[in-house]
Amino acid sequence: MTAILVIGLTIAMFMAMTKLHHRFPTPLLLPIVTTTIVSVLVLIYFKIPYDTYMIGGEWLQKMLGPAVVALAYPLYNQRALVKKYRTAILSSIVFAMMSGLISVSVLTFLMGLEKSWILTSLPKSLTTPVAMQVSESINGIPPLTAVLVMVAGFVGAIIGPLVIKYGKIESAIARGVSIGSASHGVGLSCLQDYGEKELSVGSLAMGLSAVVGAFICPIFVYFVF
């Protein structure tokens, strides 16, 4: 009963937040963001242990796999577009990965963080399972890396649409690659507001970023640190 109640309430909150976002279409009200915030507040207010919530939450978590696989459908529909711009997409992903590694290294160094924290921050733009493995391989702190991955996802989902709007970015390729390579699955949620092309390119960028990052990140650490 606990599992059923948790699943039902979570889905109900997400549907309510989706309607709110449709009525007030602003990045700050993205369902994935607002549902997370409301869920945390509910757990805190009613003093519900996280382990109790995860009795049902783990079933929702298990659906992440099929949900990610489902992204292949819009990608298949837009395969001609992806094939046409394959060079631009791949080169952009590599550039995004390198610029992310350099910027994170410089910023964390200027902040005076210890080397272990810097290494922990480097895989932040990769999807969680890959990021944690990469973090472990470069002597980072995998659990903290997972938290930073979530932060990068939420920041990208909220700030990304604003950058697209005020930067007047009209290209579906540019929109998809920028969000998908920087903010992985959480960021992809905001691309639904733009269309199937952006979502397709974004899902491809997310997958390729994980592959490219798994190779580039350790090499970058080897030569820089």
From TrEMBL:
Protein's cellular compartments: Cell membrane
Location (main, coarse): membrane
InterPro entries hit by this protein: CidB/LrgB
Topological category with respect to the lipid bilayer: Multi-pass membrane protein
One Pfam family in the UniProt entry: LrgB
Keywords: Cell membrane, Membrane, Transmembrane, Transmembrane helix
Transmembrane segments: 28-46, 88-113, 144-164, 204-224
GO cellular component terms, A-Z: plasma membrane
UniProt keyword Membrane, yes or no: yes
Domain of life: Bacteria
Keyword Cell membrane: yes
Protein name per Swiss-Prot or TrEMBL: Holin-like protein CidB
